[in-house]
Amino acid sequence: MSVKVDLDRLASTLADYPCGYLITVSDDHRAHTVAVVARLTDGVLDVGAVGNSTRRNICGHPDATLLWPPREPGGYSLIVDGRGELTDDFLRVIPQRAVLHRPAVPGVSTTPTASGCGDDCVPL
Questions:
Q1: Closest CA to 45 of 69, 17, 73
Q2: φ and ψ at 56, to 5 degrees?
Q3: pLDDT digit string (tens) for 62-102?
Q4: I want to staple 84 with a disulfide (CB 3.0 to 4.6 A). Which of 15, 30, 58, 71 is the partner?
Q5: What global pTM score does this model have?
């Protein structure tokens, strides 16, 4: 099932997350993580220039995840799953799923999300 990402909401949310991490996967299923400054332009996250490992991973496994940690303890992380596309050495990621996520506080009930996640999740 695919849930449409609210790109306007993603754009406004990204303003609070200046630097994040791009996670790709190699042929031997090892995660490769690099710091990035991604910009949302015309519904696509422009990651910019990438190195050899990221390029090789995207060519073999185009699914990618962008993760922005919370700015303060207890805040939300922003997680965007998408499909990577390479143009020369530049990477673009087309968002397919986006969520604000933080662990549930023990002893405090949260409203269940559509995914059934037991944590505090806000789909975008």
A1: 17
A2: -60, -45
A3: 999 999 999 899 899 999 999 999 998 899 999 999 999 98
A4: 58
A5: 0.86
